[in-house]
Amino acid sequence: MCCYIAFPLLRPGLDPNALQSYVPLIEGAKLRCIQREDYLNSLGARVRVLEMVHDIVMLSAVSSLHGHEAREMFNEKFPKLFFELEGGMTAVSFVLPALPLPYNIRRDRAQRSLASIYTKIIEARRSANFDDNICPDEGKDIISHLMRSTYKDGIPLPDKEIAHLMIAVVMGGQHLASAIASWTLLRLASEPAIVDELYREQSAVTGSAHEPLCLKDVQKPTLLWKVIKETLPVHPPLQSLLRNSLRSMVIGSSRWVIPIGRVLLASPAYTNRNSDIYPQPERWDPYCWELGNDDKRTGDHPLSQGKTVLPFGAGSHYCIGEDFSNVQLMTIIVTIIWLFCLENPPGREGVPGIDYTSLSSFPIEPAEIILRPRDVN
């Protein structure tokens, strides 16, 4: 399905009214993961960040966007299928997707299994009059919206396409959210003083760890907001962005001409670490956003034109899930800060290096932090 068609269909499920209902669901998903791993009963759990974050991001996305049926059937099999699907997203698979490699075979098998799961959910809703089959506390999920949607010519979406779109909704945000959340937690573990300040700040915002979060709590321009905003340019989740040239273009005032049909590549991973554009590009400093500059990393390079930070892309192919991703990230970080003190494992300073072999810029394993439970009674 063309992205120009899919974007308008998905956008209502990611608008502010929908986001309001997602915050408690994301918070609940996070708590389920913590309770399942029994982190709260450990004096100092040594946790692999990527493994923890992968489950949290997956469960929170499914819980909030996919409706109560998917949330209730979420078990060990569900994330495993997405993990196998994700394992087939490699550079080789991008060029030769049908190559019969083991991880491509597992990818295709997982895709068929997930499509079958979502198709059964859709069929069950249709047979039970799906208007009445929505939990009143979660609002209209994306599956319900797509089941009511039509193309411009009035043709309803086939169940198969809805199922595939639901898989794409999770996969589209899984890499970015997992990478950003992992780097944020690793940075916070290396800066315990900032963790303490975040805890004091959230105490003032929500009053108690037992109070449910709401959208306004995680959208305020607080230190939490600055922490996320600073992590995005220092650890851009996308190493490169590709765009096809639909017409000949002249670059700025230069003599460079991009012919029609060429593929353009922008690399946030390179641009954001270019000291010719940004001073101290690898320094992680959330407090710099207190200066009142809306975009600290707007470069002075003559070709930058003030827009060099592209964590969620730009133009007609920008990520429509940006607002959801920010709410998801802030809710996850707030919940962890409420429940745990974070610190680096003994012997490690700073954060791990970047794994450039992955499609997203994940930290090199083992990327671990120590979680020490707070007394929140």
UniProtKB/TrEMBL annotation:
**Required co-factors:** heme
Which residue spans traverse the membrane? none
Give the protein name, as stated in the record.
Answer: Cytochrome P450
* Source organism phylogeny: Eukaryota, Fungi, Dikarya, Ascomycota, Pezizomycotina
Sites binding heme sit at 319
For this chain's UniProt record, which GO biological process terms are given?
ergosterol biosynthetic process
Q: Which family does it belong to?
A: Belongs to the cytochrome P450 family.
Q: Which organism is it from?
A: Endocarpon pusillum (strain Z07020 / HMAS-L-300199) (Lichen-forming fungus)
Return any one Pfam family short name.
p450
Q: Show the PANTHER family listed in the entry.
A: CYTOCHROME P450 26 (PTHR24286), LANOSTEROL 14-ALPHA DEMETHYLASE (PTHR24286:SF24)
Q: Which UniProt keywords apply?
A: Heme, Iron, Metal-binding, Monooxygenase, Oxidoreductase
Does this entry carry the keyword Nucleus?
A: no
